[in-house]
Amino acid sequence: MALLDIYTSLSSFLSSANTLWLAVALTVIGSYLLYQWLLPKPLPGIPFNTEATKSLFGDAPAMSREISVTGEFSMWLAHQVEKMGEPICQVFIRPFSKPWILVGDFHEAQDILMRRTEFEKPQFLIDGLIALGDFNARLKTNDPRFRARRHLKQDLMAPNFLNNYMGPFIHTEGLKLVKLLEAKMKLSDGRPFSALADYYHAALDTMIYYAFGGNFPDSALDPQLQAISNLEPSQISPGGKDEPVVFPDAPTSPFLTAVHHAPDVLEKTTIAWSPKLAYWWMSQQAWYKKIFSQKKQVVQKQLEAAIHNFKAGEVKTAMEHLVMREKVAAEKQGREPQLNSQLMLDEIFADMISGHHTTGGSMGWVTKYLTGFPEAQTKLRKALYSALPSAAAEQRPPTFDELRHAKIPYLEAVIEETLRLTPFSMTRETAQDTEILGYKIPKGCQVMMVNAGPGYLSPSLPVNENARSPTSKAAKRRPNWDETKDLKLFDPERWLVTKEDGSVEFDSAAGPQLGFGMGLRQCWGRKLAQLEIRTIMALVVWNFELLGIPEGLGGYAGYDGVSRQPQKVYVRLRKMNSW
Ligand code: HEM
Predict the structure, then answer these.
(1) Which of 88, 154, 363, 552 has the highest CB neighbour number within 10 Å of its CB?
(2) Distance 234 CA to ligand 1 centre (A)
(3) Which residue among 141, 149, 347, 354 is best mutated to probe the pocket of ligand 1, counting the most ligand atoms within 8 A of its Cβ?
(4) Are the CB atoms for 120 and 140 separated by under 8 Å?
(5) What are phi and psi of 389, to 5 degrees?
(6) Three-class SS string for 445-484?
(7) In this entry, which stretches build a coiled coil (predicted)?
(8) How far is the CA of 35 from the centre of ligand 1 (A)?
(9) Calpha distance 340→425 (Å, rounded)
(10) Full pLDDT tens readout for the chain, 579 residues
(11) Torsion angle in degrees (nearest 10) through CA of 197, 202, 208, 211
(12) Distance 263 CA to ligand 1 centre (A)
């Protein structure tokens, strides 16, 4: 080969090698810059876990590890606030997105939820609830449709609907639950058994009655009663006195089963990285189709029945009230009413989903705390007997009207204290650039009110008072809340105040509480939930002593699903009297 040829091939080799090296170098530099760009970016000044900023996935792997064991997202959040020891900090739980801001101070959380217009319903929740269709809680507060939708439902948390329509049903359902528990108590012969499904069944029946009333005949509790009353003591599996009896769970009708399982979809979509994609994937699955075809068939039929009843002059159920309100709104606005519409189906189905596990779980929690704190249980029973003397003297359960009119501060305090101890964190999204406790927070950040740690279940962290927002500075404080008492203990007395005349009253504003959220987007069904828990738990405590259970069946572990639900609710019962 001529020298020139050798030179030419060498230089072309070198130049292609250079190009290759250049390409490799550029790829490496590019990948490095991309990696750096994708790493979590903390907001200036706000404490964070530095290790999390070295990984593309931020805090997510550590969070998943803890939650896969405990099931408790609220507790993980509280641990982050505790670790950083500041009333505001940031975590990186969604890769490639802005940090999530954790607010671990009650007064600032209250300010954000109640007074600050720059915070909105979060988009990730709106997307996460996509399976429930077009209902009011998926609308932003500043969307004019939100108020119009709330208007449609305006009668349903009013005293007339609650006390005259829902109350008597809830009372009857409570008595049915007592009957079921009594049958189980007899069969279990002093052994413990789980009551969690029974509370869920009672709560499910309540939501079905709320929506459709007597137009829909299926019940979740009736088949259980029937199944248990057909059981012979010889059919109970033998076991020691601390070994729980497992009772059969009688199947419910397809629609009730669908309502029971629909929250599974929401739990998956709200935590998905892309809720819309997760929703699409799930909507292809047979189990999903089964749930939502039930919704389509049954709720549509019920809507037609409600329209028919309304036209015949009957307005009792939630569905009938919606139809009536839509007619009134349409007349006012000079448009055709949309009575038979998807919107009506979605609003009513979403309420059933919102009110079932939440309330059933809360009744389970009350049962657990009263079991674990027998002194409080005895106090509550005494308070019930002395507030309802005729029923006590006549050895019968109180009627709904007696219960409704009785003033029983200790009962309200027990419910309030249970909600305080079983927190579910809530989120808002910044709709514009703003500040929290003096730190700049850009538009589009998720802000979580962490109510399972400092300021709620442990003493408040110090706050620079000057850094609070003007509305927070101006707000009234709760002077008598005693943070030196163990805040993790169940102590209903915290919510009672003694007046100058010696009378004792319940004060719902005595301490930090976000059990139902706060402000315009607080729990819409709060009054119904409170009525239900109050009525049913009064009947349970009136009728039974909740005896101690083995340690392995107790504990206060929860599960953060659509609300904070107890993992187990075991009871060992003794009937109080012969009524
Ligand atoms: C003990 C039972 C219940 C608990 C603990 C509970 C708790 C909550 C919480 C913490 C929120 C979020 C509040 C916020 O972000 O500020 C909420 C929202 C909501 N709840 Fe409940 N809830 C219960 C029962 C019910 C019932 C019975 C219904 C329906 C009848 C219901 C309907 C709703 C709705 C529609 C929302 C969304 C409100 C909105 O975005 O505007 N809840 N609930």
Answers:
(1) 363
(2) 43
(3) 354
(4) yes
(5) -65, -35
(6) CEEEECCCCECCCECCCCCCHHHCCHHHHHCCCCCCCCCC
(7) none
(8) 40
(9) 36
(10) 556 676 777 677 667 778 888 888 888 888 878 878 888 999 999 999 999 999 999 999 999 999 988 889 999 999 999 999 999 999 999 888 999 999 999 999 999 999 999 999 999 999 999 999 999 999 999 999 999 999 999 999 999 999 999 999 999 999 999 999 999 999 999 999 999 999 999 999 999 999 999 999 999 999 999 999 999 999 999 999 999 999 999 999 999 999 999 998 888 888 888 888 999 998 999 988 998 899 999 999 999 999 999 999 999 999 999 999 999 999 999 999 999 999 999 999 999 999 999 999 999 999 999 999 999 999 999 999 999 999 999 999 999 999 999 999 999 999 999 999 999 999 999 999 999 999 999 999 999 999 999 999 999 999 999 999 999 999 988 778 999 999 999 999 999 999 999 999 999 999 999 999 999 999 999 999 999 999 999 999 999 999 999 999 999 999 998 889 999 999 999 999 755
(11) -130
(12) 13
What whole-number distance in Å separates Cα of residue 460 and Cα of residue 240?
A: 45
Q: Tokens 């060498």 — which residue?
A: 10
One-letter identity of residue 440: K
Q: Tell me how far apart the terminal alpha carbons of the chain are, to the nearest angstrom.
A: 114
Rg (CA), the chain: 28
Whether 355 lines ligand 1, by a CB cut-off of 6 Å, is yes
Q: Which residue has the tokens 């209903």?
A: 492
Between strands 446-449 and 100-103, the pairing is: parallel
- 119 within ligand 1 shell (Cβ under 6 A): no
Of 424, 318, 405, 404, which Cα lies nearest the Cα of 362? Answer: 424
- 529 CB near ligand 1 (under 6 Å): yes
- Cβ of 74 less than 6 Å from ligand 1: no
CATH classification number, 152-424+515-575, choose in 1.10.3380.30, 3.70.10.10, 2.60.40.1930, 1.10.630.10: 1.10.630.10
Q: Residues, the chain, total?
A: 579
| Amino acid letter for position 11 | S
Please give the DSSP secondary-structure letter assigned to residue 186.
H
Residue 71 corresponds to which tokens in the numbers above?
A: 């099931």
**Burial of 520 from C-beta contacts in 10 A (0-12 / 13-18 / 19+):** middle
Pick the atom of ligand 1 nearest to 350's CA: 35
CA pair distance 276, 138, nearest whole angstrom: 14
User: Does the beta carbon of 352 sit less than 6 angstroms from any atom of ligand 1?
Assistant: no
Q: Which of 233, 523, 533, 254 is nearest to 366 (CA)?
A: 533
Is residue 106 within 8 A of residue 456, CB to CB? The reply is yes
User: Domain ranges in the chain?
Assistant: 152-424+515-575
